[in-house]
């Protein structure tokens, strides 16, 4: 199956690409649709951007809303999850002494975002240490709730963590935050197309996710979701044609007839809308190729590879399987120069995979997508065995 699916992708054949989680990889048909939109724009830019764009932007909103379980007026396109979360972080009315509750597993760019906000507002970041290995929902939820105080104004969580590839069971913590009047802000950068999402059921106040990773749309396509009750809290990062002076009034409309939440964020000067317009093509590609079944195969391969490496290293996993991201796993390795291992894996073995130090652990973060194979997992394990001085790995049972 992997060899057959690999033909759909533009990845270099001389590289073993095991890092889909960082930037994704766009299938050929989806990339062709992306270039088609770009060509159409260039053929008549004024018509496309000046007269057609507002209507064109509705289609990806609706397609994504249907996929993610939310209303099409509660979701808006942004360049990436980081930009969407910056809109939220820099809009919320925080004051000196207010607390932003988060975990020790967050993405570094967002750690910097909240640090910037705290410098501007006088708010404070409170970091909860999540006990490892993560083996139960209560273990996670109890740790989060224990960190909540009367000063907690924001709960900021990753749904799937970047450094540790953990799938956090966020729903009970979000419900408790709502009960206490705490804004919940969720970094879902890795979740769309990775797990089945129902944003209305999750119930977060704000949720941002990338489409360019596991949904496999072009780079520059992501979304911000906000519950209708909190949309008026948001200000765009760029004030442009979509903004109106009455945008905070009850029932206000944006400059182009949608809500201020939609118009102020969507219409921010000249940009290339092709990545966002291609989201329906990415969803169609996934449907035509039964990608949830592909994801199940990838999950099994990722877990089997992690199990095999764990047998070689003797190091415990960071979580039980149900709290590991389905197609991504952070695999502990013995103490080493992670930068040198990363460099050598690519230069000597042509393997593209993140290797880094997280807290007191050395980590290899494996992503498995439909274009990967058992043979590539064998290559990775053989390379790590040589570089780390491990006992030679057995070949996988599949081949």
Automatic annotation (TrEMBL):
Gene Ontology molecular function: any one: transaminase activity
Keyword Transferase in annotation: yes
Recorded superkingdom: Bacteria
The UniProt record lists the keyword Transferase: yes
Residue span(s) of domain Aminotransferase class V: 49-354
Stored InterPro entries: Aminotrans_V_dom, PyrdxlP-dep_Trfase, PyrdxlP-dep_Trfase_major, PyrdxlP-dep_Trfase_small
Keyword set, alphabetical order: Aminotransferase, Pyridoxal phosphate, Transferase
Name assigned to this protein: Aminotransferase class V-fold PLP-dependent enzyme
Organism: Devosia ureilytica
């Amino acid at each position: 199956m992997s060899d057959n699916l690999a033909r759909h992708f533009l990845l270099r054949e001389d590289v073993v690409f095991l890092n889909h989680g960082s930037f994704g990889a766009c299938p050929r048909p989806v990339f062709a649709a992306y270039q088609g939109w770009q060509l159409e724009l260039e053929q008549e830019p004024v018509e496309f951007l000046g007269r057609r764009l507002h209507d064109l932007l509705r289609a990806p909103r609706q397609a994504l809303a249907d996929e993610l379980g939310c209303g099409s007026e509660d979701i808006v396109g942004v360049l990436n999850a980081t930009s969407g979360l910056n809109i939220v972080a820099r809009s919320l009315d925080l004051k000196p002494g207010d607390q932003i509750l988060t975990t020790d597993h967050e993405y570094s760019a967002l750690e910097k975002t909240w640090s910037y906000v705290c410098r501007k507002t006088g708010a404070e970041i409170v970091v909860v240490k999540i006990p490892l290995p993560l083996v139960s929902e209560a273990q996670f939820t109890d740790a989060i709730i224990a960190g909540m105080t009367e000063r907690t104004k924001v709960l900021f969580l990753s749904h799937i963590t970047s450094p540790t590839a953990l799938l956090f069971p966020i729903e009970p913590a979000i419900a408790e935050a709502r009960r206490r009047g705490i804004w919940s802000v969720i970094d879902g950068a890795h979740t769309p197309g990775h797990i089945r999402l129902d944003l209305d059921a999750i119930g977060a106040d704000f949720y941002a996710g990338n489409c360019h990773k596991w949904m496999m749309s072009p780079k520059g396509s992501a979304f911000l979701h906000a519950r209708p009750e909190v949309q008026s809290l948001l200000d765009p990062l760029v004030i442009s044609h979509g903004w109106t002076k009455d945008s905070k009034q009850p029932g206000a409309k944006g400059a182009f007839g949608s809500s201020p939440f939609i118009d102020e964020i969507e219409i921010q000067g000249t940009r290339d809308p092709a990545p966002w317009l291609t989201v329906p093509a990415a969803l169609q590609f996934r449907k035509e190729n039964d990608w949830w079944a592909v994801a199940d195969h990838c999950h099994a391969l990722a877990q089997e590879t992690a199990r095999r490496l764990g047998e070689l290293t003797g190091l415990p996993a960071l979580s039980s399987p149900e709290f590991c991201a389905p197609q991504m796993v952070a695999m502990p390795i013995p103490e080493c120069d992670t930068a040198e291992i990363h460099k050598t894996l690519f230069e000597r073995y042509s393997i593209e995979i993140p290797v880094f130090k997280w807290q007191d652990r050395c980590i290899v973060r494996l992503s498995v997508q439909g274009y990967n194979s058992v043979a590539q997992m064998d290559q990775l394990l053989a390379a790590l065995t040589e570089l780390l001085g491990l006992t030679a790995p057995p070949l996988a049972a599949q081949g």
